[in-house]
Amino acid sequence: MSIVFYLLAALTVAGGLAAMLLKNMVHCVLALTVAFAGLALLFLKLDAQFAGFAQILVYIGAVAILVVFAILLTRGSETPKDGVFSRSWLIGLVIAAAVFAVLGWAVLQSARVLPHETAIPVVTVKQIGAALVGRYVLPLEIVAVLLTAAMIGAVIVAMHENVGHEKEGSK
Amino acid sequence: MTPLTGYLLVAALLFSIGLAGALTRRNAILVLIGIELMLNAANLNLIAFWRYGPHPEALTGMMFAIFSIAVAAAEAAVGLGLVIQIHRHAHTTDLDQMNRMKG
Amino acid sequence: MIETCDQIFVLLQHWLVSFLPASWQPAAGVLLSVAAIVCVFPALFAVAVLLERKGLARIQNRLGPNRVGPFGLFQPIADAIKSLTKEDIVPQSADAAVHFLAPVLLVITVFMGFAVLPMGRNMVLVDLDAGLLLYFAMGASSELAVFMAGWSSRNKYSLLGAMRAVAQMISYEVPLLLSSVAVVMITGSLSLTKIVEAQNHYTWGLPHWYIFTPWGFAGFLMYAIATTAETNRSPFDLPEGESELVAGYHTEYSGFKFALFFLGEYVAMFSISGLGTTLFLGGWSAPFSFLTWVPSWIWFFSKLMLSIFVFIWMRGTLPRLRQDQLMNFAWKFVLPMCLVNLLAAGLWRFMGDGWLRWVVCSAILIAAYAGMGLAEMRKQRLGPRSYRYAE
């Protein structure tokens, strides 16, 4: 296990922890961006270059900015008066710890039957493209329809209601 | 400890951190952030298994992860649109105060 | 002799690295190339700042800086000394950590883009299979730095400028990517070295640059519009318009941090012009087949400086667009044209060689342009043009 892996794992976990623990919401989003970047570097270490760059492009370049805009539109940068953790925080923590215990135990118990090929797979973007329009063309088209529906849906859900009421009132 | 075990443990840790955040924070947007962390942890699992698994040239793991990234982006967009609309209606995003069906 | 001139930097790198033990050589080679990039592009930035001030001044019928050195040639040195010695004022209520990290993140992501640009024959820092994707990933990350700068200043004008800048950058990200996708479609690869090599052929002395094809010309125009908007240059510079928003998202920055923002903006201009020359203008290939004896890196940098000159020219000539005008333009005109361009590029590929594909593709693009232009302009009530001259 190389030192690079430990550093990247520490960076990612630290970013995730900071995202969930900080009080200021914009700091949380920036810590989340650090976690995304750490994950993209982990993908690059796993020789999945296309996935790593797509992670940076989509998550850091779009999802993080989306979350930031939502925080600004919902006045999230003002600190709340009742504290940032909900009343039932202890139960949530216990559940998360139990989930981690179960997952970690499952991984460590099955360590001897897990595959561990170490030959580096040579994957070109051409192969990914051929797979996308060959074997995975149906998921590709469905994801295209899903993204269009999500885009139109998000615009309609977040649109001002006054537009509809005004039109009804003037009839 | 093989490399694959290391990646799986990191993914499990990230998943439980995201779950803890989604279950304990008050603000709706932070719950969505926790969900994004969980999705990312699952992606890490997929790519790790693709890399160290038997047939990496079939590209299954990488394809799954790429589609998961696309779907997560769509879900984040719709979820945040909903949060914005809820804020407009209830003037708060505090989940502890949204415990009634009325209104 | 020609070969040596062309490969002089590569040979220099190999010679310098040969003094080290074999296990250190790859890392040392990479470090040397990185050092070269980090030295060359800020030097070009100094030249570009001077060119911009003199050029804008001449367009506006005045002289520009002419005190420091002959014809103001040492002005960049004076500017550097000023920005390094000015007091670094951080507002008291500003978020200190984010305020510090914003220019750092901007400069890092902007310089990362140079890792995949082929600046000459065999002169790429990293020859990635998905090079174009890395470039766009770094471009998308720089938007977050702009937002961090505007938000951390706790200043209404900075936040407003940052939101406008981010909205503009994400709107024009889509035409930027779509116009590059047409090039990727025809070349069949995301690797920038392969894209340049596909354009490096000559027919009757003229090169096969993609700008000389109908879809390439339309794509280049849309790429140019998108890059002007991505780097917040005039006529899309409302986020940093001095007359509207003081200085937009970098209002509260002074001294070295402001210099970093300025550097980041100009180096982003260089890197995105470099990508534009790689995709559409043939990268390091010569314009005529009898000029291939000139070293390849000279061609790359001359095309880069030509693009910078056009940027400066546009800044001095065109008026600023309003925020809603530029968003309308992006989503309602440029994006549909990009989709039509993709269609035209696809037809080009499948029609085979001959004069017919030129006619069909040009006809589709001109019809789409005229149709959408007429549809947009019908809503405007424009009277006859009137002029006012200074008395």
What structural class do you assign from the helix and strand content of chain A?
mainly alpha
* Shape type of chain A: globular
Number of folding domains of chain B? 1
What would you call the quaternary organization? heterotrimer
The biggest sheet of chain B amounts to: none
Instruction: Please identify the top-level CATH class of chain B.
Output: Mainly Alpha
- Tally of individual domains of chain A: 2
Q: How many angstroms does the end-to-end distance of chain B come to?
A: 54 Å
Question: Got a strand count of chain A?
Answer: 0
Report the total helices of chain A: 7
Approximately how much beta-strand content do the residues of chain B carry? under 5%
Largest sheet of chain A: none
Number of helices of chain B: 3
Helix content of chain A: over 70%
What would you note in describing this structure?
The complex is a heterotrimer of chains A (171), B (103) and C (391). Chain A is mainly alpha-helical and 171 residues long. Chain A contains seven helices and no strands. Chain A is globular and about 55 Å long. Chain B is mainly α and 103 residues long. Chain B has one domain (3-97): Helix Hairpins (Orthogonal Bundle), CATH 1.10.287.3510. Chain B has three helices and no strands. The model of chain B has no long low-confidence stretch (mean pLDDT 90). Helices cover 66% and strands 1% of the residues of chain C. Chain C contains 14 helices and two strands. A two-stranded antiparallel sheet of chain C has the order 1-2. In chain C, helix 5 (96-112) packs antiparallel against helix 6 (131-152), helix 6 packs antiparallel against helix 7 and helix 13 packs antiparallel against helix 14. Chains in contact: A-B, A-C. Chains A and B meet through helix 1, helix 2, helix 3, helix 4 and helix 5 of A and helix 1, helix 2 and helix 3 of B.
Write the layout of secondary structure elements.
The complex is a heterotrimer of chains A (171), B (103) and C (391).
Chain A: H1 3-21, H2 25-45, H3 49-73, H4 89-109, H5 125-133, H6 137-158, H7 162-169
Helix pairs in contact in A: 1-2, 2-3
Chain B: H1 3-24, H2 28-52, H3 60-90
Helix pairs in contact in B: 1-2, 2-3
Chain C: H1 2-6, H2 8-17, H3 25-59, H4 75-85, H5 96-112, H6 131-152, H7 156-187, H8 192-198, E1 202-203, E2 206-207, H9 214-230, H10 242-245, H11 256-279, H12 296-317, H13 323-351, H14 355-377
Antiparallel strand pairs in C: 1-2
Helix pairs in contact in C: 2-3, 3-11, 3-12, 5-6, 5-11, 6-7, 7-9, 7-13, 9-11, 9-13, 11-12, 13-14
